[in-house]
Structures are given as C-alpha cells and as structure tokens.
Amino acid sequence: MPRRAPRQLIVYRLLGFIGIYPGMIITYTMFNMPLALWVIKGFIDEVPKSLDDAAKVDGFSTTATVLKIILPQLRAALAAVILLNLIFVWNEFLFIYILGGKALRTMPVAIYAGIYTEKGVDWEYVSSLSTIHILPIVVAAFILQKYLTRGLTFGMRR
C-alpha cells in the first residue's frame, strides 16, 4: 500500500509553494517566529514601565517611544534572536530538501548531494564545503558578540 503525503505537503503543492522562495520564506517564518517572539518578550518585560511613562510625559508618541526608548534597550535581544534564527535557517536541511525541490538548493543539501561517489564518501568535499558553510555564522557571531553575552544568558539567576 503506497504511503500518502502529509496534508501540509499536499496544501503546499496545491498552493504552488514547492520549489519557490515565497514558500520557503513562509515555512521558515512559521517555525522561527515563536522562538524569536518568546525571547524578545522576555526582554520587553524587563524594560521598566517608568520609561514609557517618562516618554509620555515628554510628549513622545507611541511610535516614537518604541523607536527611541524601547528598541535601544532591546539590542541584546535582537542580536541573540538574529543569530539564533540565522543559525537555524542556515543549517536547516529537511524543509529545503522536501519543499525546495531541485530549483532551490542550500549548502546542507549540496553537501548531502555530493557526499557519495563511486569510491565511497568524499570526505575532502564534505570537510571543505562544511568549513565554507560555517564561515558566515562565525562572522555574524563575531560582529554581534558584544550583545550576545547578555542576550544568550538572559534569565540566568545567580
């Protein structure tokens, strides 16, 4: 008896989202947004309410309060969320392998596709592409490192 495709895959196929970038953007957003909101919510709860009140007294609008007062307080949270989501999306294999088709191919799928040769596993290929693959994440972590210590250790009690 042949196996049936999951309903989500059928819906994606009916909507024409397989093998195109908007379909992958929707998928990654659905899976990464909850973590991002959860981390940022913890930081927003940490911002004192007195800052909002002081901004209202000074005549700031709600938008100006968010942009000029609250957002600068959330730099560490934004850096942590950006790096975590970048790592999750950059290293993700399954969604792009199933939903990306042959048109979309990321580095993990390219590494997987070229692993096996007639002589066996091509370890030079795997190690060289893996090294190239992790370089952007290392650079991003280096750029964001001054915010990451606070962002990634948020909520740790002594």
Could you walk me through the main structural features you see in this protein, from its secondary elements to its overall organization?
This protein is mainly α. It has one domain: MetI-like fold. It has nine helices and two strands, in the order αααααααββαα. A two-stranded antiparallel sheet has the order 1-2. Helix 5 crosses helix 9 (145-152). It is flat, with a radius of gyration of 21 Å.
Features:
3% strand; 73% helix; flat; MetI-like fold; mainly alpha; 2 strands; two-stranded antiparallel sheet; 9 helices; 158 residues
| N-to-C SSE string, H for helix and E for strand | HHHHHHHEEHH
Helical percentage: over 70%
Q: Report the top-level CATH class.
A: Mainly Alpha
Reported for the largest beta sheet, the result is: 2 strands, antiparallel
Instruction: Name the poorly predicted regions.
Output: none
- Could you say what the CATH topology is called? MetI-like fold
Strand order of the largest sheet: 1-2
- Overall 3D shape: flat
The tally of structural domains comes to 1
Total helical elements: 9
